[in-house]
Amino acid sequence: MGTVSIKEVARLARVSPGTVSNVLNRPERVAPTTRERVRQAIRELGFVRHGSASTLRAGHSRTIGLSVMDIGNPFFTDVAAGAEDVASDLGYAVILGNSAGTRSKEERNLLVFAEQRVRGVLITPSDEALGPLDGLRERGISVVLVDHPAHRPDLCSVTVDDVAGGRLAVAHLLDLGVRRIGYLTGPRTIRQCLDRGRGAGQALAAAGLDPETVLETMEAPAMTARAGQEAAERLIASGRLPEAIFCANDLLALGVLRGLLQAGVGVPGDVALMGYDDIDFAAASAVSLSSVRQPTYRLGQIAAELLLEECGDPGAHAHRQIVFQPELVVRESTGGPGRTAATTRRRALTCSPAPKPRDSTLKEIR
Amino acid sequence: MGTVSIKEVARLARVSPGTVSNVLNRPERVAPTTRERVRQAIRELGFVRHGSASTLRAGHSRTIGLSVMDIGNPFFTDVAAGAEDVASDLGYAVILGNSAGTRSKEERNLLVFAEQRVRGVLITPSDEALGPLDGLRERGISVVLVDHPAHRPDLCSVTVDDVAGGRLAVAHLLDLGVRRIGYLTGPRTIRQCLDRGRGAGQALAAAGLDPETVLETMEAPAMTARAGQEAAERLIASGRLPEAIFCANDLLALGVLRGLLQAGVGVPGDVALMGYDDIDFAAASAVSLSSVRQPTYRLGQIAAELLLEECGDPGAHAHRQIVFQPELVVRESTGGPGRTAATTRRRALTCSPAPKPRDSTLKEIR
DNA sequence: CAGACCGCCTAACACGTTTTAATAGAGACC
DNA sequence: GGTCTCTATTAAAACGTGTTAGGCGGTCTG
């Protein structure tokens, strides 16, 4: 019914369909007067290019896929906002897929991306198996890893040094004088969790302490606030509360905080608490949360830039693995200044772009 | 290069391309043994259907578009999660667009949707102008409004009664005994803000009070925490703090809370504070936030169900305007029970599906 | 046993766009 | 006036899939 094609535009403008196509894609090849006549016809008929036909003929689309592990986590929506801003500036649309951290949903997302013949894919993989991604690349779909390092020279990645982040966090806790630390991690398949835990161990070793006796690792089934709260409740029931708890992300930490406070456990008085990511809500929580800040929005931006550069000219493109350095943010939950001190946090609680990181926080490899 | 088409599958399976197509789309029409032979060939070659060719030929795709006003607002990510779960169960992919509340980005999203020939569109419009949407519908793209009422019998919508929500909020504040209330709203073009303000006025009128003297409306340029904080700072600087502040959403309220606390203003002691949406972080904030709860995830689910029903059989489809009733949630910021009371909130702080609302909260019109 | 019917499959075209090679037309130069 | 160059346009052939009309055996029915 309603759908009007390039042919009808051509007829109205008294030119051939090919000329209409040229007006759309290479206007400089068309004489100004014809060009305007065609544009008028397009307006008049309300013509909208059929993206699928275009993709079919051109062999590729103007879309990229973005697969994240948790759409409910502000960390990932910040990344998505950064990527989308860059992509849409260059005329690309973003198809967003939520893998919810599961292998099967992730694969379903990738299948959709492949069927849609997206130009490229940004992905935070939920585990180390990159096989499906190589499958995409064989089909000519570029891939950039987000928040996951590519340990290979033929793949771009944008990450933040999670081992360093873990070190920062636990070194800070040790500075407080605590000597029994709990590490609440997410599922073991998640690299971020492992690296942050490894950094924690390094901080202990550097302080001459034995990780075995000082650090107790607890695994939550998901990296959500609910899981964090349940972990805290279990911990309280067991009667073996550590002096400090380091959580693998802020959502877990906010859940733990809630569980502790509801049980009457003081933070930081009885237990010091650290999160990770520094999501915007961390500064606004019941007891403001110490955390490890990452340049989240920037992560998405750079990833999209790398991807589109690679799509634009795969031959000339030099793959890069970019690593940012995280930053410690001390707040009340580890005895830092209270919220009445206006200096606690310069960045307002918001979801808009984070300030561009200082150059010193950026380290590029290769 | 790598891309393998239906023809090569056909050759390997020694059938015609049409049969392969049938295996993909109407397997029951193909004899079991041939079917299996074709499927084997598909696996062997790693064939992936070319979505664009399929869309081109079939005239429609297996995708829906979702345009939200703020991807950084947990309210909308919850809606998106609900919609995506339903859509992907039915084999549809979701293209997510962030309009950031601006007209121009919204129109860009709709253009992308139209070019992609999505099957339908879910949208929270940023203003009252539905013209572009009718344009879509003329092209055969179904539309369902999310969190925005369709005041027409030919359009589906899923909403929550914002006027009632505003009444609930302000009636509660009046119960506390306050007689000077500030209403911090977002841009005037946003319907939700207007309706919630209207409800606030109704609550005052019902209590025999004069809205003019009791309620002072302040407009923030955006519905973010940053804007909320800045509004609070301006208010403090002006020296005219009301006894209570009702914010048009929780992000604004969290920002206001932050601004007040940093300036040493007590909540709820000096100023009572109410948000709207009851996002998961509202219960975990510095002073836990009273709010108006909406069945967010459910909103997305139902919207997607309506949309796909309409897409499936536009003839038989009866348009419906569904209205949920919101629910008051009283917490510390209006003198409710502190967080040590385990009964404050049944639902854990998390981003997973909200419990299905009780039937009494659902009211369906027409 | 003829004819109708059925299940399964194939051949061929159509979908709307992009692109390439070819064509027409207008000057410009000798 | 003829040829050459350059520009503006066109015709036609793809791209990979879905669908429709029909063909080919074989089986059932009267």
How many structural domains in the coordinates of chain A? 3
- Strand/helix succession of chain A: HHHHEHEHEHEEHEHHEHEHEEHEEE
Query: For the report, how would you describe the main beta sheet of chain A?
Result: 7 strands, mixed
- Which percent range describes the beta-strand content of chain A? 15-25%
Number of helices of chain A: 13
Chain oligomer state: homodimer
Per CATH, the superfamily of the largest domain in chain A is: Response regulator
Q: Determine the CATH topology of the largest domain in chain A.
A: Rossmann fold
Short description:
2 copies of one chain form a homodimer. With 366 residues, chain A is an alpha/beta fold.
Describe the overall structure.
The structure is a homodimer of 366-residue chains. By secondary structure, chain A is an alpha/beta fold. The first copy, chain A, folds into 3 domains: 6-49, 434 Repressor (Amino-terminal Domain), CATH 1.10.260; 58-160 and 296-324, 3-Layer(aba) Sandwich (Rossmann fold), CATH 3.40.50; 163-293 and 327-359, Rossmann fold. Chain A is built from 13 helices and 13 strands. Chain A has helices at residues 6-13, 17-25, 32-45, 51-58, 74-89, 103-115, 131-138, 162-175, 191-206, 211-214, 225-238, 250-262, 296-312; strands at residues 63-68, 93-98, 120-123, 142-146, 156-160, 181-185, 215-219, 244-247, 272-274, 291-293, 321-324, 327-329, 362-365. In chain A, strands 2-1-3-4-5-11-13 form a 7-stranded mixed β-sheet, with helices on both faces. In chain A, helix 11 (225-238) crosses helix 12. The model of chain A is unreliable at 339-366 (pLDDT under 50). The interface between A and B is large, with 73 and 74 residues. Chain A binds a DNA duplex (30 and 30 nucleotides) through residues 3, 5-7, 15-22, 24-25, 29-31, 34, 49-50, 52-59.
